[in-house]
Amino acid sequence: MPTTTLKRRLGVLSLVVSAGLVAIKFYAYRLTHSQAVLTDALESIINVFTSGFALYSIYLAGLPKDENHPYGHGKIEYLSIGFEGALIFIAGLFIFYSATVSLIHPHAVSKPDWGVALLSLTAVVNFIVGLVLIRAGKKLNSISLVGDGQHLYIDALSSLASSAALVLVAFTGIVEFDGGAALLLGIFILVNGYRMLRRAVSGLMDETDAATVTEVIAELQAQRRPAWIDVHNLRVQRYGANLHIDCHMQMPYYFTLEQIHTELHDIEELIRARFAVEVEMFVHADPCTFAACSLCLMPNCPVRQHPFQHEVEWDLHNAVRNQRHHLKPENPGLSIS
């Protein structure tokens, strides 16, 4: 099955499940009149809106590049996460206020056994579907599916907490447990809404994904050739599931254009083979200078001016800087110029 089709089907699954579970939770609230159950139901309404928007974002992210979107439409997935986080945060504020009022003015809870049964059912369904979406989202590199799955997983935890509150009220007769549970859920929802907003802002502002950058550098280091004297100014941008990578690679200045082209093509191909997503990579070739001789392993170099001292191992610290590395012959310490 094509990746885009699978993503859309999972998005539809999330939307249908969310809508069905909201109905069950509001029915549970009608039976119990529990503030904790109402809190859980209100939070689940957000699931329906966010699942719908996530499905739309998956559709847009799957569209091919065009003249207006040369890097594709993948950024919409970060907007989806931000939209979801904003709604969750707003819902958390309302729930926090409502729960505070309920804790100050508690009211009786009826039919807690029915409430526990219905909420437990929704928790199991949300947990299973959320787990499926998270695993599929990571495999398909879809942050929308991962975010949607995490929301359902959080919803499952909320339902379990609400069920626990009903059990406590039923066995102790202390109705304040209901409002207290709702208040804690409100705080929990606020924190998770903020985290989703933070992640969306990071993606939209192209904040460095240290894990992905490290993976790219490690692959270049593992496949390193003598002609690849030095790499710097390496950047990785994520557009939905796709990656845009660019860097500067220092190579022997006496190489022909054909030799340079072959080396750059090999670099691009090995990086594409490393990631199971579409990778767009641009490598800018820099001619070497005599200052690089002391870190260059090029055999039988016809223009070498200084003996080799040691190789600079590329890592997250030095490969992302927009500066060439070299070892001064009179000073074996690493310097950057």
What's the short story on this structure?
It is found in: Membrane. With 337 residues, the protein is mostly helical.
Describe the structure.
- Its main location: membrane.
- This protein has 337 residues and is mainly alpha-helical.
- The chain folds into two domains: 202 residues, Alpha-lytic protease prodomain-like (Up-down Bundle), CATH 1.20.1510.10; 127 residues, 2-Layer Sandwich (Alpha-Beta Plaits).
- The protein is built from eight helices and five strands.
- Strand 2, helix 8 and strand 3 form a beta-alpha-beta unit.
- Helix 1 runs antiparallel to helix 2, helix 1 packs antiparallel against helix 4 and helix 2 runs antiparallel to helix 5.
- It starts with a helix and ends with a strand.
- The C terminus is likely disordered.
- Give me the CATH architecture of the largest domain, please: Up-down Bundle
* Full CATH superfamily name of the largest domain: Cation efflux protein transmembrane domain
Average pLDDT number: 80
Q: Assign the CATH class of the largest domain.
A: Mainly Alpha
Number of helices: 8
Shape by Cα distribution:
elongated
- Taken together, the total number of domains comes to 2
- What structural category arises from helix and sheet content? mainly alpha
Subcellular location: Membrane
Protein name: Cation diffusion facilitator family transporter
Main location: membrane
Membrane topology: Multi-pass membrane protein
List keywords for this structure.
337 residues, mainly alpha, Alpha-lytic protease prodomain-like, Alpha-Beta Plaits, 2 domains, two-stranded antiparallel ribbon, 8 helices, 61% helix, 10% strand, elongated, disordered C terminus, transmembrane helix
